[in-house]
Backbone:
């Protein structure tokens, strides 16, 4: 089992923790990253794009010109697709882009992402992550202490002080354990979590 030091926000070592091999030492299967990130991005799409067909375009009720005798091709309406401003053929309509993916595949990809950050020594464990007051400067100070360029912080529960202190930092994401996902792990080069969050993740994903 991989063993990591536990730090406080001042970067002092206050203990150590043994990580579960099944969660943080799994074989990394990179094809799962593509599969699950594609699944996540598809679910986030609004699917509200739409165009008008010939029946929805305003106007076009009157025949543009008479059927015969003009020397031109017969036309029934200016809302036909080949007219400028006419309807669109087979255009997009509101729909959901989400598709199904088995829970086992999503869980396996999450284990692979956690294991990848662990093998890269990009995983930091805090004893707890609390701030005395809501200030971006305090959160940025912790970032500088640990030399984090960007960070995904996973906490146990919902701490409004930490969330509000981090939300103005462009390369920082704070998530509760329940919101941990493959896309955000891969998006950030550094992953940090509290020891309580590690226990919950292990209980959720451990075999």
Residues:
């Amino acid at each position: 089992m991989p063993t990591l030091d536990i730090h406080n926000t001042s970067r002092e070592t206050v203990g150590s923790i043994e990580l579960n091999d099944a969660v943080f030492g799994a074989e990394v299967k990179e094809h799962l990253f593509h599969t699950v990130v594609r699944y996540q991005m598809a679910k986030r799409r609004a699917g509200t794009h739409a165009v008008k067909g010939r029946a929805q375009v305003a106007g076009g009720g009157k025949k543009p010109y008479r059927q015969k005798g003009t020397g031109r091709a017969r036309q029934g309406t200016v809302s036909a697709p080949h007219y400028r401003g006419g309807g669109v053929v087979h255009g997009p309509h509101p729909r959901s882009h989400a598709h199904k993916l088995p829970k086992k595949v999503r869980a396996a990809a999450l284990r692979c992402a956690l294991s990848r950050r662990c093998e890269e020594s990009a995983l930091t464990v805090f004893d707890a992550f609390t701030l005395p007051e809501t200030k971006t400067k305090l959160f940025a100070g912790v970032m500088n202490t640990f030399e984090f360029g960007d960070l995904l912080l996973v906490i146990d529960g919902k701490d409004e002080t930490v969330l509000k202190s981090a939300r103005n930092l462009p390369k920082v994401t704070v998530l509760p354990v329940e919101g941990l996902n493959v896309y955000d792990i891969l998006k950030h080069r550094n992953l940090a979590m509290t020891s309580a969050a590690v226990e919950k993740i292990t209980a959720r994903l451990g075999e």
Notes: DSSP finds seven helices and six strands in the chain. The longest strand covers residues 13-18.
